[in-house]
């Protein structure tokens, strides 16, 4: 699951395109299938979104929650690909993008009435 935070005046107009960019990166780097898009957008009032100095109102936070198993090199490639594609396709400078990957063990994920370690029919690899 991916959660994206930003100032609503900047995030709302681009959220569909940003979702496409994020999912495209997830597909190309992690091999995620087309139908495994789970994005949540949290547009905030400017008064509710404090961010570091030197950033613009386009500042966007992307939190990626995933099952543990991806190699550090794969995770770094995902982060760098996101920076590159967000800048290329949405003209948002990498200085205005913050990305965190939060890993949980498969047994800490619940979906379709089972836990992640019980799923044996995933259409993608976790250990890449």
Can you walk me through this structure?
The strands form 2 sheets. A 4-stranded mixed sheet has the order 2-1-3-4. The chain is of the alpha/beta class and 128 residues long. The model has no long low-confidence stretch (mean pLDDT 92). α2 runs antiparallel to α3. The radius of gyration is 15 Å and the shape is globular. It has helices spanning 8-11, 15-30, 72-90, and strands spanning 2-7, 39-44, 60-67, 97-104, 110-111, 114-115. The chain has one domain (2-118): Macrophage Migration Inhibitory Factor (2-Layer Sandwich).
List the helices and strands and how they pair.
Blueprint (H helix, E strand, L loop, with lengths): L1 E6 H4 L3 H16 L8 E6 L15 E8 L4 H19 L6 E8 L5 E2 L2 E2 L13
Parallel strand pairs: 1-2, 3-4
Antiparallel strand pairs: 1-3, 5-6
Helix pairs in contact: 2-3
Major sheet size, sense and barrel closure: 4 strands, mixed
Q: Per CATH, which architecture?
A: 2-Layer Sandwich
| Number of contiguous helices | 3
Secondary structural class:
alpha/beta
SS strand fraction: 25-35%
Q: Could you say what the CATH topology is called?
A: Macrophage Migration Inhibitory Factor
CATH class: Alpha Beta
Order of helices and strands: EHHEEHEEE
The poorly predicted ranges are none
pLDDT average, as an integer? 92
| Percent helix range | 25-40%
Computed Rg: 15 Å
Q: Termini, distance in Å?
A: 18 Å
Q: Please, what is the CATH homologous superfamily?
A: Macrophage Migration Inhibitory Factor
Using the alpha-carbon principal axes, give the shape: globular
């Amino acid at each position: 699951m991916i959660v994206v935070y930003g100032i609503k005046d900047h995030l709302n107009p681009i959220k569909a395109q940003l979702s496409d960019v994020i999912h495209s990166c997830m597909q190309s780097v992690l091999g995620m299938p087309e139908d495994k898009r789970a994005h949540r957008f949290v547009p905030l009032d400017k008064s509710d979104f404090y961010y570091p100095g030197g950033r613009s109102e386009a500042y966007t936070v992307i939190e990626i929650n995933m099952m543990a198993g991806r190699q550090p090199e794969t995770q770094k490639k995902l982060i760098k690909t996101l920076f590159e594609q967000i800048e290329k396709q949405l003209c948002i400078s990498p200085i205005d993008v913050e990305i965190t990957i939060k890993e949980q063990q498969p047994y800490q994920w619940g979906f379709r009435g089972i836990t992640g370690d019980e799923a044996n029919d995933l259409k993608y690899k976790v250990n890449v």
